[in-house]
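#onboarding

Welcome to the new folks! Below is a worked example of what a typical request in this channel looks like: someone posts a single protein sequence, and someone else replies with the predicted structure as tokens. Don't worry about understanding the tokens yet, we'll cover that in week two.

Example request:
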Amino acid sequence: LGRREPRAGPSLVVCPASVLHNWEREAQRFTPGMRVLILAGEGRHALRREISRHDLIVTNYALLRRDLDQLSKVEWSAVILDEAQFVKNPDAAVSRAARALRARHRLALTGTPLENRALDLWSIMAFVNPGYLGARASFVRRFDRADAPPHARRLLAAKLRPVMLRRLKKDVAPELPPRIEERRDCEMTTGQRKLYLAELEVARNVMTQLSARGGLERNRISILAVLTRLRQFCCHPALAGGRLDVGSGKFEALFELLEPLLAERHKVLVFSQFVECLKLIAPALRERGIPYHVLTGQTTKRAEVVSAFENDPEPCVFLISLRAGGTGLNLTAANYVVLFDPWWNPAVEAQAIDRTHRIGQDRTVIAYRMLTAGTIEERIWDLQQRKAALARDVLGEDGFAKSITREDLEYLLAEV
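Example response:
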């Protein structure tokens, strides 16, 4: 984005709140002559009068919904959606708000245009180029099905080619060092294994009851909740109501991994999808005298927390919830990543690793994926590998959980 043409109007960037000021900093760095206005906080109402005197306006998705009446009156030169998967649900208020903006040019930036289903992509394209992928109902019939034939995916890929620029990291930053991923298998403690097996039996009974009430499709949310509870037992029984003193084999394996890395003065990112799990890891770090920082969806001063980690002169650990820290962060001070628990969608895990494997990184990035042996975690991993061809869609990974069949569930809940 350079200085705007005369009479072209300002451009608007809509992004997650966590990266709002990143746009301001990067604009100052790359285009210092650009006049940037941040619309955030209570003072934004007065600042809106200044829009016409600026080249680039930056706001976040939550404020877009609240301020739509005013923002939709502006004739924007361009509207750019950063992390455009925020509008993946076409019925969401934020998606409707984005489509209501008036602009000569529209651009969507995202690393995961397909997070759960093909309709995600249709919704993003409804903002960029309304009608390009046809009516929603016909798109769903042709492409948004778990059993969509390969030729349908090829047709959709061909349709997207003229309007989509896909840049792989090796194309954007060929100078980046290698990225290595390693699987680390963890053994349960004796007490943890007993609790897990008891919960596994409960899960099988629940699945039988849900199947009798309408099958997989009608009970998908309940089924995923049952599977999630099993995964919590794999992390630590205390996450699912068990006693803290039962212990966790994965916790023991985590510290076996962390201690030599910290002794070599490395910084380490530790991701978990369970905020409560991070709350259990934090006191265990304190007991061992290991410095750490924490970033979750409950963190209010994200920029300060990130800066504190990046500038910490000591080797330390950054505990990050997968959803809160999976996008919009540049954490190149670390080159080791631990994925403490597996996520259904491998693309989300890849985004987490990418927090440190990005421009500015000059060391090899090593990511450890921790899996509890003989449990649902290991079977999720196996299933992901087996279903890779099905999960791979026109752009990368489609929603893994959405494609689970009855046979897959029986495999996940089988006793090893």
